[in-house]
Amino acid sequence: MSDALDNVRDHYRAAGLTERLKTALRALGPEEQRLTPQQLGVLDQFHTRGLTATAELATLSRITADMSVLDIGSGVGGPARFLAAAYGCQVTGVDLSESFVDAARYLTARTGQSGQVSFQTASALELPFNDGRFDVVLLQHVAMNISDRPRLYREIRRVLKFGSRFATFDVVLDSGEPHYPVPWARTPATSFLLTAVATREAVEAAGFHTLAWQDDTEAAKAWFAQLGASGPPPSPNLGTVMGPDFARLAANLGRNLGEGRLGILTAVFEAASINA
Ligand SMILES: C[S@@+](CC[C@H](N)C(=O)[O-])C[C@H]1O[C@@H](n2cnc3c(N)ncnc32)[C@H](O)[C@@H]1O
């Protein structure tokens, strides 16, 4: 494992996460009570604009019930559970962080979706799947943690069927270096941002055609402004997953967007011939 991956793994090492979630979720009902993916949306969508952004990316991905979807960097599994509930598809999540995978499995048992949604600990740079295994790959707020983008996008292309879709929703570099800490990095050691244009070039070079390309920076700024105006969120929330200083990390992302240092990109690509 490279130093960069080790640093990222350390950033997302959330000791005792499943136990903390069990405690926090008592606010929503007793342990044996089934929860819905919507109820968990307050703490399991680890990206700007939460469940709304996942739903929009899913629409662009044109998922259907017979599809097999891979969510790379699946976090605690919120996007995967939402996709399975909304579309009836099978979803596999992979994540570098063992504690996140453990928490994702626990939360999926709580929503009764374990037959449809599964999780594995693995690196996006070495996906444990055969070529052409998936119909859709999702990557939400993960690429900024990965330095070897050519390898990331080649791995994604490898596990997708020809003609299928890769949908990404990520933070991109705009006009300057970000203020740290941010939700994916306490220091520049775990942050590997590209501009939107460089992201597109890297994805297309791996064997994709661009289908949709959207600058979501303004929508993200509006979302942060609304969050700021509505005061501290009730518990449980993403701070339950990432720790008590998460609000400060998230506020810095809002500041970086406001100052034009960072942007938010939504893009969907079609898997072309690998040598195209
Ligand atoms: C900001 S969270 C986003 C989680 C999820 N996609 C979501 O939107 O709710 C980033 C996730 O990417 C994972 N990650 C970062 N680098 C990775 C890599 N090389 N391979 C697999 N997962 C990775 C982290 O462990 C973390 O769970």
Overview of this protein structure:
With 276 residues, the protein is an alpha/beta fold. The protein has a single domain, classed as 3-Layer(aba) Sandwich (Rossmann fold), CATH 3.40.50. It is built from eleven helices and seven strands. Strand 2, helix 6 and strand 3 form a beta-alpha-beta unit. The chain starts with a helix and ends in a 5-residue tail after the last strand. The structure holds S-adenosylmethionine. The site of S-adenosylmethionine has 26 residues, from helix 1, helix 5 and strand 2.
Describe the secondary structure blueprint for this structure.
Layout: H1 3-11, H2 17-25, H3 37-44, H4 50-61, E1 68-72, H5 78-87, E2 90-95, H6 98-110, E3 117-121, E4 134-140, H7 149-159, E5 160-173, H8 196-205, E6 208-215, H9 217-229, H10 238-242, H11 246-258, E7 262-271
Parallel strand pairs: 1-2, 1-4, 2-3, 4-5
Antiparallel strand pairs: 5-7, 6-7
Helix pairs in contact: 3-5, 4-5, 7-8, 9-11
Bound molecules: S-adenosylmethionine (SAM).
CATH superfamily: Vaccinia Virus protein VP39
Major sheet: order of its strands?
3-2-1-4-5-7-6
- Structural class designation: alpha/beta
Mean pLDDT metric: 94
Task: Give the domain tally.
Answer: 1
What is the CATH third-level topology name?
Rossmann fold
Q: How does the major sheet shape up? A: 7 strands, mixed
Number of helices: 11
What bound compounds does this protein have?
S-adenosylmethionine
